[in-house]
Amino acid sequence: MKQFCFALQHLTRITLYKGAFDETAFGRATVYFPAVGLLLAVLLILVRAVLSYIFPAPLLAAMLVAAMVVMTGGLHLDGFMDTVDGVFSGRPREKKLEIMRDSRVGAFGALAMVCLLLLKYNIFLSLSDTLTWQAIIPALVLSRWAMVYAIARFPYARPSGLGTLYKKYTGGRELLLATASTLIITGLVSGIAGLLLLPIAWAWVRFTGGKLTAELGGLTGDTYGATAEMTELLVYLAVFPLYGYWPGLFYSLRF
């Protein structure tokens, strides 16, 4: 239970555990990252269900983007912007890592965030009632699973930081458990399509993780956040052609 609480309070603004810090429980909390993604998805869908009776679709889509920022505290967005600023700076490796530590946002990071939020806004605007559960849940679960994979399978670039605890305690067992829960959730919600989205996310994380490791000598807490944001967007974008061309891959669930 302590591991789940650490995962929840690190990936969201929700705090349930106020006891002493437990290094091992924190490091192995990655097992519950997909479960936290599921919780975020359910909360987001509930927000959509309530607000859809009050506000028009364009305003509702903007509110869903804002709701995700509020629920997560913008943690992954911050990592995404820092990663873009560092990687696209064209500087040597150590300078890139230094730029990523800088609390200020550069032009590359700001532009990337605007593009990311615009895409998310239009995704929420385009989701039909039928597809809402089958898109939002896989996107948020797989994006959090992607962080677990990145932690377990790529080296860490810095000698210190909270990310070192994840790297120290997250291995094959944690990745296996996180993958199993991810498959169960996405399979139950989106049927065969949900199962197909996992290898799509895996291929993306392998590609981006390899590129970032080549650029930075490993991954960091910022790149973990960037991985979550990019994978979430990728899954959303993959759902539309899958549903458009092979709707039979999705369960006909209505909530």
TrEMBL record:
GN (gene name): cobS
Keywords linked to the UniProt accession: Cell membrane, Cobalamin biosynthesis, Magnesium, Membrane, Transferase, Transmembrane, Transmembrane helix
Coarse class of the protein's main subcellular location: membrane
Pfam families, sorted: CobS (PF02654)
Enzyme class label: transferase
Recorded superkingdom: Bacteria
Similarity comment: family membership: Belongs to the CobS family.
TM helices/strands, residue ranges: 31-55, 105-123, 135-154, 175-205, 233-253
Catalysed transformations (reactions): alpha-ribazole 5'-phosphate + adenosylcob(III)inamide-GDP = adenosylcob(III)alamin 5'-phosphate + GMP + H(+); alpha-ribazole + adenosylcob(III)inamide-GDP = adenosylcob(III)alamin + GMP + H(+)
Biological process according to GO: cobalamin biosynthetic process
Species per Swiss-Prot/TrEMBL record: Desulfoscipio geothermicus DSM 3669
EC numbers, comma separated: 2.7.8.26
InterPro entries named among the record's database cross-references: CobS (IPR003805)
PANTHER family in the cross-refs: ADENOSYLCOBINAMIDE-GDP RIBAZOLETRANSFERASE
Keyword Magnesium listed: yes
Needed cofactors: Mg(2+)
Location of this chain's protein in the cell: Cell membrane
Pathway in which the depicted protein is active: Cofactor biosynthesis; adenosylcobalamin biosynthesis; adenosylcobalamin from cob(II)yrinate a,c-diamide: step 7/7
Protein's name in the database: Adenosylcobinamide-GDP ribazoletransferase
